[in-house]
Amino acid sequence: MKEISVNGKRVIIRKANKSDARALIEYLNVIAGESDFLTFGTGQIDISTEQEETFIENSLRKENALFIVAEINGKVVGNLNFSGGLTQRTAHIGELGVSILKEYWGNGIGRELIEYLISWSRNSKIIRKINLRVRTDNKRAINLYKKLGFSKEGIVKRDFLINEKFYDSLTMGLLID
User: Fold this and answer.
1) Is residue 159 in a domain?
2) Does residue 161 lie within any of the structural domains?
3) Domain annotation covers residue 174
4) Domain count, the chain
5) Residue 99 falls in which region: left (phi positive, over 0), alpha (psi -120 to 50) or beta
6) What is the spatial distance between Cα 137 and Cα 120, in angstroms, rounded to a whole number?
C-alpha cells in the first residue's frame, strides 16, 4: 500500500481485492464513456460481479500479475492491471493497462500507479519486461511513458476501430533488468 496527496486529498494505492469487484465494474463503465483511448467503450463492459471477483482472485494468485487501485475516500479513481505471460517462456513479460477517472487526469495518479508496478516488477525477480500499447495520437500518455523509461518499439497499424475510423497504436516496453 502507498499513500499520496492530490490537491489535498489522500489517495491510497493498494492491491485490488475481491470486495472491490462491484466498484470496479462501475468505475469501468464510467471511464468507458470518458475517453476513446481505451480498448473498450460505452456499453462494452459486460461482466458480472462474480466474473470480476474471479479475475481479481486470479490476479492475486499469480506471481507475475498485479492488479492495483487508487482510491479517494473509498472511491476507486484509478486502476492498473498487469498480466504476465502464461507459459514458462513468456512468464517474465507482461502488458499493462492503466486508467484514471477524467476528473483526476493530470494529478500524477497514473504516474504513481505505473511507478508502483515498476517497483513491484523489480522486486518480483520474475518480471523482466513491461509492455504496453497506446494510441499514436495519445501524446500525453506517450510522454508520460517516455518519462518513466519506456522505449518505442513499433507501430501496429489499424489497431483500434472506433466509429468506423481506424487508429494505429504504438508498442512500448521497459526492460526491468
Assistant:
1) no
2) no
3) no
4) 1
5) beta
6) 29
